[in-house]
Amino acid sequence: MRCLPTFLLLLLPLLATAQLPDHSPTPGGVAVVPLGPASSDTPPRADYYGKRVSVVKNDGQWVALVGIPLKGQAGPDKLIVDGRAHHFTVTHRDYPEQWLTIKNKRKVNPNPDDLKRIRQEIAPQRAAKRHFDENTWPDLVMHKPVDGPYSSHFGLKRFFNEQPRNPHGGLDIAAATGTPIKAPAPGLVVEAGDFFFNGNSVFIDHGQGVISFYCHLNDIHVKKGQRVERGDTLGEVGATGRVTGPHLHWSVGLNGTWVDPSLFMPDDQRPEPYSTQTE
């Protein structure tokens, strides 16, 4: 009998089953949509409003992981799988407001030179957010990337210097400058650099379009094209970009939209509910 190479033996459990994120079909959540029996190791092609969706195998079934935008609306919805519609329902979810004062006013109202830089930075960040490594199967269990208390929830309706801005697309974890940031799961670094609003930032593709994002770093310890394992150091906590103090902003993305990272985390590492959270 022919023996399989070691790397294939390690991969087989991921092909056989994936520990799924929580099914939370709300704006900013994840709709876990069963697609039927997995008769081969080639997943079906799934798209949600023109963006490719992560499809994984779970207990002999193909399952789509649909990231629902924070600005999505409650009601009937669908994704297209190999040309056919699969329906699901998005339920309502409301998020609290958060009002922040930013001392560097250019980070709220950029000047013309800032705007030119911001426009140039859109393409590489968008490409990283939408990156899709179809040859890698993701480990969907995300560990907390830095030690520290949660200082800001996902999804908050944000106001900077009393001006409305995009809702908060990640979790903030407060920590001292220089605190190590660890990769929450294996993946490939698809972008690393300094950006106007986000400061020093790292994007990782964990496979099948599951993306994680880390920003406001004091220092970056990885480079684009580098593969990392869970627990590898990505960089250090800092206060670069648009911030009120040192912390890590951590996002997780599916099909080009940020979703609640806590849906991927072990129960004992998740933030407390809003009612008991200090913002």
Characterize the main sheet. 10 strands, antiparallel
List the helices and strands in order: HEEEEEEEEHEEEEEEEEEEEE
Radius of gyration: 19 Å
| Helix content, binned percent | 10-25%
Strand content: 35-45%
| Structural classification | mainly beta
Question: Could you please describe the fold and organization of this structure?
Answer:
The protein is mostly beta strands and 279 residues long. The protein is built from 2 helices and 20 strands. Strands 9, 12, 13, 14, 15, 16, 17, 18, 19 and 20 form a 10-stranded antiparallel β-sheet that branches. The longest helix has 18 residues, at 112-129. The radius of gyration is 19 Å and the shape is globular.
Q: What is the fold's blueprint, element by element?
A:
Layout: H1 6-16, E1 30-37, E2 46-48, E3 51-52, E4 54-58, E5 61-67, E6 75-81, E7 84-90, E8 97-100, H2 112-129, E9 150-152, E10 157-160, E11 163-164, E12 171-174, E13 180-182, E14 187-195, E15 199-205, E16 211-220, E17 227-228, E18 233-237, E19 247-254, E20 257-259
Parallel strand pairs: 8-10
Antiparallel strand pairs: 1-5, 2-3, 2-6, 4-5, 6-7, 9-12, 10-11, 12-19, 13-18, 14-15, 14-17, 15-16, 16-18, 16-19, 19-20
